[in-house]
Design a protein that fits this description.
heterodimer; A: alpha/beta; 5-stranded parallel beta sheet; two-stranded antiparallel ribbon; elongated; B: alpha/beta; 3-stranded antiparallel beta sheet; 18 helices
């Protein structure tokens, strides 16, 4: 699929893949595609940051290359690594064959095909621009960010023994961060920035319709109304969209047609991930929200 | 794109810059291109495009929104408005006026310190550095003196002393490797060397790199802790200046983040600002509710990357409904290492009789005395060694249940 020509087309392309973005986010995506800049997504967990990259790859019909960051991530597992075992083998072969030219051997040892490509190098050597997802960048250590600068800004990678590898088709880069630490300004400056927020009720309802189609109009409305109210409470971890979808599916699996204290209590672990939050709901928050929904007519009163 | 739109974006970027947003010329150029791409038909598109380009943090959004709304109406008006409202909008303190500093005057009247403190002394030279800072006799007297009986001038010396003490936590082994005389053989490097000098065999080795963990300091500033807390504030200042990723919060009746104040270069201004920010010096204390707030609002953000937590309190609080124990347990789960610095530990035969102390004790990795300079200096040493409390292992198992 060709790249979208304006913001509306971007919204539409994402929506065709069942990703309902806010117009603000769609604008950022559209700009990232057209300015050729990396897109840095920040937001609470479960708001669809990673999903956006996956959907983007599907919408553009291009491969998705994913680099999951973690502490201790280094160049060898992020960018490239020399195939040491094969190099050893080459040396043995040269020895056995009494290969005379030492220079030739050394040149052979550090040839391009001796390089094992890891995600970053893979992303620079595709036949068409791939989507490169650098997930949870805040988990990697800070020195790694500095290494990313070259890849992100110039779409190239320097291998000391070999020279610079430049991408013919620069990747579309999406970075995500959960903000467990602040990303360095030098990196931010090279990126477009978008904050991915929880969706409003109308959009979340539409998302549930798409992602949990089995849930009827009534249950979907109740689930969304419940979650939207839950987010306003003082929680350790407010439920994200991912949790809302999971919850709707969990309720479906239990054949619940409508929310009631029992079904909520049975499935609370899908929605909330901290014992303290669950305790708060068991201790009265569930009832308060359900009462509120009754009062507003979203939920019928049970006998 | 017409020159007028570009002019306006440049102008708007200047306003943002004045409001404290780091908008460089590269961002301005990108902004012009972005607006070119989305077109001028829809206001929300222009807003989204410019915020995607100009922002770097979510917290900047309100400032941006306010500026954008005003600019859309009347650029000239905004400029005048910004000028007036700048400190409020940017959330900055007003024009910097060094606060009254009686301590400074006092210091000016007293003889100057012998040598300026070195920037970041190597660990082995702690003792020599301390010697160089204060004359021997003075140090002897000071180190034995309780913080409670220290004068303002002695605080200053304490601060400088504290600044030279290295970060009081055990370094973390990271998963990154660094060249080292001992450790595993680094095959990759060995091979590269072999290629360079094929006739010699040399096996370079590498070992996990060591890194100072992030540090979070929680200081109790209630009435009973007053003098100790102040002394420790000077110590925290020194740590903040010399290491990055040191967060300091104080609590009495409420929790206040003073990290930003302590980052100020001038120690007197830093402490002064912290003083102004904190409203509850020498008040009562509610340890449980403060720990609860910290757990809820800050812990998950601050205590990342195997952060260590220093809890500075005497633990003199009631433990209503066992909530202190619950919050302490929660805190222990968030922190990689939880160290309790207790000034009351100076009394020999201190027994954990107070309810608060008993509630906290099972959950800390170790409790150390903190009541004079000698104990502060010991702190760094003690924290580098593994926990020595016999029941520390018991706490670990308790955590998992």
């Amino acid at each position: 699929m060709p790249r979208p020509a304006n913001v509306d087309e971007t919204l539409e392309a994402l929506s065709r893949q069942d990703y309902l973005a806010s117009r603000q986010l769609a604008t950022a995506v559209f700009l990232a595609l057209n300015l050729g800049r990396p897109l840095l997504l920040e937001g609470e967990a479960g708001t669809g940051k990673t999903e956006l990259a996956k959907v983007l790859a599907r919408a553009l019909d291009t491969p998705l290359i994913r680099l999951q960051c973690y502490e201790g991530l280094d160049i060898a597992s992020a960018a490239y690594e020399w195939n040491v075992a094969r190099q050893m083998l080459e040396i043995r072969i040269a020895e056995a064959g009494h290969e005379a030219s030492r220079e030739k051997l050394v040149a052979g040892l550090y040839a391009r095909e001796m390089l094992i490509a890891r995600p970053l190098l893979q992303a620079l050597t595709q036949d068409k621009p791939p989507v490169l997802l650098i997930d949870e960048l805040d988990r990697a250590d800070e020195p790694f960010e500095a290494f990313l600068l070259e890849v992100l800004a110039e779409s190239q990678l320097s291998v000391p023994e070999l020279g610079t590898i430049r991408a013919e088709h620069p990747p579309i880069v999406v970075l995500t961060s959960n903000r467990t630490r602040e990303i360095h300004d030098a990196l931010k400056r090279r990126c477009l920035y978008a904050w991915v927020d929880y969706p409003d009720a109308a959009r979340e309802l539409e998302i549930i319709h798409r992602k949990a189609p089995g849930a009827g109009e009534r249950l979907a409305a109740q689930v969304v109304a419940f979650v939207q109210r839950a987010r306003r409470l003082d929680l350790f971890k407010a439920p994200g969209v991912a949790e809302t979808i999971d919850w709707a599916n969990a309720l479906l699996a239990l054949d619940a047609l409508s929310l009631d204290p029992q079904s909520v209590s049975d499935t609370l672990g899908v929605l909330l991930k901290y014992q303290d939050d669950i305790a708060q709901f068991e201790g009265g928050a569930t009832k308060a929200i359900l009462d509120e929904l009754h009062a507003e007519g979203i939920l019928e009163r049970h006998p | 794109m017409s020159g007028r739109v570009a002019d306006n974006i440049v102008h708007f970027a200047r306003v943002l810059r004045a409001a404290g947003l780091p908008v460089g010329s590269d961002r301005i150029l990108a902004g012009i291109r972005a607006v070119e791409l989305v077109g001028l038909d829809r206001r929300d598109d222009v807003h989204a495009a410019l915020s995607a380009v100009m922002l770097g943090r979510h917290e900047q959004q309100p400032v941006f929104d306010a500026a954008f709304a005003a600019f859309w109406r009347d650029p000239k008006l905004l400029e005048r408005l910004m000028y007036l409202l700048l400190p409020k909008i940017a959330g900055r303190p007003g024009p910097v006026q060094p606060p009254q500093r009686p301590r400074r005057v006092e210091e000016a009247l007293s003889p100057p310190a012998t040598t300026p403190p070195p920037e970041s002394p190597p660990h082995e030279e702690d003792k020599q550095t301390i010697d160089a800072l204060v004359s021997f006799s003075e140090r002897e007297r000071l180190q034995r003196a309780d913080f409670e009986s220290m004068s303002a001038r002695e605080f200053a010396i304490a601060r400088r002393l504290a600044e030279t003490v290295p970060l009081p936590v055990r370094p973390l082994r990271t998963r990154r490797l660094a060249a080292s005389p001992r450790g595993r053989i680094d095959v990759r490097r060995a091979l590269r060397r072999l290629a360079r000098t094929p006739d010699t065999i040399d096996l370079p080795r590498s070992a996990p790199r060591l890194r100072a963990p992030p540090l979070v300091i929680l200081i109790d500033i209630s009435g009973s802790m007053d003098r100790y807390a102040r002394a420790f504030l000077h110590y925290a200042y020194g740590l903040t200046q010399h290491h990055h990723r040191v967060h300091t919060m104080v609590f009495g009746t409420r929790l206040t983040d003073i990290t930003r104040c302590l980052r100020h270069r001038d120690p007197d201004v830093a402490i002064e600002r912290a003083d102004e920010l904190v409203q509850d010096w020498r008040g009562g204390t509610r340890i449980a509710s403060n720990l609860a707030e910290f757990n809820r609002r800050w812990a998950r953000r601050m205590l990342t990357g195997n952060a260590a937590l220093l809890l500075v309190t005497d633990g003199l609080d009631r433990d209503e409904h066992g909530s202190l124990a619950v919050e302490a347990a929660r805190l222990a789960r968030f922190a990689h290492e939880l160290v309790w610095l207790n000034p009351l530990l100076r009394y020999e035969g201190f027994t954990p009789r107070a309810a608060g102390v008993r509630a906290l004790l099972p959950h800390v990795d170790r409790m150390l005395p903190m009541h004079n300079l000698a104990s502060l200096a010991d702190l760094a040493q003690a924290l580098r060694e593994p926990p020595q409390r016999p029941d520390a292992g018991a706490r670990r198992t308790e955590r998992t249940t």
